[in-house]
Amino acid sequence: MDSSRRKIIARLALIAFAVLCAIWLVRLDYARKISTNVLDLIPPAEQSPEINLVRSFANNVQSRVMLFALQDAHSPATPPKAAAEMFVAELARSPEFAEAVLIGDTTAQNKFGREIFERRFELLLPGWLGERQREFARTGRPSREFAAWLAERAATDLESFLSRPEAAAMQELITMDPLLLVPQLAEHARIVNAPESAAGGNALVWARIKPSPLAEAGQQPVFSAIESALANVRAVHPGVALRWTGINRFAAASRARIESEIRLLNVFSIAAVLAVSAIFVRRIYQILHLTPVILLSIAGAWTISTVVFDRLHILVFVIGSLLSGVAIDYGVYIYMQPALRPDEPYGEKLRRLLKPLLASCLTTVIGFSLLLFSDLPLIREIGLFVSAGLLCALGTAMLYFAQLEHPFLEARQFVAQGARRDHAALRWFSRGLLALAAAIVLIGPWHLRWRDDVRELDIPAPELHANEAALRALFGENTDRSVYLTYGATVAEARQHLEEFLAHQARVAPNVQNSSLGLLLPTENDWRELPARLAALGDFAGDFRDALGRHGFSAASFEPFFNAWRRVRTEPPSGNYEALAASLNAMLTGPLSLLSNPHDPAWFLTISEQPEGARPPAGLHTVSVSQLQSLNELFARYRWSALRLSLIGLALVIVSVFAIYPFRRGLRIALIPAGSCFFVFGVFGLTGQTLNLFNLLGAFLGVCLSHNYAIFSSETAGPGGAPPVSIRLSALCTASSFGVLAFSHIPVIHALGLTVALIVLTALTSVELESIARKIPRR
Amino acid sequence: MFRPPQNFLLAGFLFVTVVASASPAAGAGAGRDIVLPDTVIPDPAHDVGWKNLFEQIGAPKTRISDFEERRFFPFRSAPILLQGEIRMVPDRGLSLSYFGAKPYIVIVDRAGVLMRDEHGRQRAAPADGRAQAATSALFHILQFDLPALLREFVIHGQRTAANWTLGFVPRDPTLAQAIGSVIVHGEQAHLDRIDMIKSDTQRIEILIRNTRDDVIFQPDVLERFFR
């Protein structure tokens, strides 16, 4: 095949590849394909139902809530109720909002309360009667005595209740409810401080948006609706100021921050790469020939990843951006290698370079391909993204430079290059440095400290966090409480688990109040048993009248109750338990609607008046809503998975190297990247740095880069000889561009940038020192 | 970022006190001999017969007293008897500490009413407007905050030598239905008794004894008995 025909074929292949990638990427629905939600890092087939539950709760329920506080500058001590009512009406009219509620507006609460009172025999009597029957069973007395025992017990409880502070306020209810079904519900479901008591001069509004706050539809359109509502309110109440918070504010700020920071870092990275190139390359504009290689490798990685995976997390692309650092190596190596003779064809030059290129690329691909076996989606996605990108980079580089007439990037010739590298003092100094490095490698990593914190993924937004904390304080929230979700496949199962969880809480912390909306619903067993239990209480009314008399009550005052009791015994509540739960759930509106879910999976929320303590035992089917902890553990799993697979990958890379190269060269190629990585971790350990998953992923990439330098330098450098300029250029470009990333305020990017830059610099230094430290054989 | 809706939990349950406090008062007027047209004190701050007394009992002082509370219920022949201590600290409000098998504390201050049990567990009275009005009224009466009292109540008074009786009748009919009338008895600058009367059979009598003024409460006492 002649040269011009080969060029045409290479060009057509490149164009075809570029067009295919472009068509696919242009048509891609990025909003659907790429997730920015931290919770999407959790494997969809995650075996732990707790994490799934938390994810479902946070995604579908909690994250859509927005909190607002209105204050009137003309009267800061008085909540501007009228303005708040108008604001609520404006929000409720907006298509972006599902509902908006003015906190302190008791209309809905009172309606709910009346309904509960009217349905007390249906909702509360089954549990009350079941509990009393179990208590009676523990006495060991014959069942025929139950009615009398129950009557005496109820009268005693009633007398005791009259000493309680709320008794005077409830006296009109007591004649209708001497069993204290409703007062006991209030007692067991108490609340510490009503939001209004903490609100000062603020009127508080709770609202729920329709779209996801993590999607664009849940951000700007919602913000516009709020601005519009506020403008209308201010037209009538000009002094009103609004504070508000919601997940969408954080998400929008995160995105803006990432965009602005990535833009800035890219500019500095490019400037750093150009500065380094200007030092090493004679005609710097020629370096632009590397741009298509990098762009096509990244386009290839994006295309293949998005074809293979239904949905990818944005972190894949952030971490995958490091691919450019690896992808550039093959182009630099091909481009900077001079022809052996002036008429050496490109094909011949390529064949000469093929072994180190393939050794470098394929061993790295093998390493990253191992990540495909991870059970964690992010790791799998990164494995495919980088592997595909590396293959695309190598293929593109080989095809692209076939287009050029003279594919050679000429380096500057430094006077000092290679000079005096065989000086004995220099050799011993290098050996000393390498020995010191070896000591750090052996000692330092033992001092490493790891901390997996999901907040590393948060973009720092101190003002928004302070605003959120202030608003939540106005709403009366505090950190002295812990919140739990008790779940089950059905509502009946979830309610039974709640019963067991509350019993467990009562045992381990008897003085701690636990409140749950689930207490409004009887367990399925108590519900089913109610008709039979009522039927067995034929003597109860008479016994209760007597007991009331014995305790100083006028039994005649309780006729409303006895009439209702007769009715409930004649027609006891019955029917489908799920329908009962659904009817209760239908009564919940506003904030109360967040407290339970009747299906898929069913759960009840419980607030415990104590700071987060030990996790409830697994058998209780209860999970803390403190997702941070769950996700931190997940991140630890990610780190261990990445570490395990990285080590296996590294081992495979080393085995491959020994299979390709003779033992001594193989040893050198293996030691440089591994040593660089452990040296950097050693320095981190000795300087007390705390590392996370992203340092580890950065290290894996850094090792792959170093691996390239070790292979390329072993091909071209001999003892005492300087490594080729292509390696210096490539390593310093990579180190400077990732060094810039180390200055990022985004913790993930900082960790990746710092780790990669240090490992690459260490590898380059090792290559330089190793060639000096070796004794030059006498000729 | 993801936080639970802590304080909305069970807000709906508080309806019970709201329902109760909104129930109509039975037999309005019973037991209120003092509440007569000729006993009205339209302007106590400038009434020569009452000015000094209001200045004395309204003076901001820390106080502690023993009390005995009798709760009369229409469905019970004998009252429920409770005993305890009242503490008063200007700017922090009132604290009623009930003794007994299950002791508890009721704190009345500008933020509302807070109930605290022997284990330190506490709960607020409803944030509902009517309930707040009732607690606010009680707070003003026990603090003798004259401007606030005049805004919310018609004040009646009778006195014989060192003994005096004041009656507070809410101006707002809804509040009147909720709390009835409040009758306060005293001798010289001390309160002896508070009656909260909704009807002959629905009333609370609080007998106050052994009052000590200008008591210095230690920080732990303040923390235990106040918000």
List keywords for this structure.
heterodimer; A: alpha+beta; 4-stranded antiparallel sheet; B: 227 residues; alpha+beta; 11-stranded antiparallel sheet; 6 helices; globular; disordered N terminus
Short description:
With 779 residues, chain A is an alpha+beta fold.
What does this molecule look like?
- Chain A has 30 helices and 13 strands.
- In chain A, the strands form 4 sheets. In chain A, strands 8, 9, 10, 11 and 12 form a 5-stranded antiparallel beta sheet that branches.
- The longest helix of chain A has 34 residues, at 247-280.
- Chain A is elongated.
- The two termini of chain A are 44 Å apart.
- Chain B is an alpha+beta fold and 227 residues long.
- Helices cover 22% and strands 37% of the residues of chain B.
- Chain B has an 11-stranded antiparallel beta sheet.
- In chain B, strand 4 and strand 5 (112-117) form a beta hairpin.
- In chain B, helix 3 (129-143) packs across helix 5.
- Mean pLDDT of chain B is 77; it is low at 1-31.
- At the A-B interface, helix 5, helix 9, helix 10 and helix 11 of A face helix 1, strand 5 and strand 6 of B.
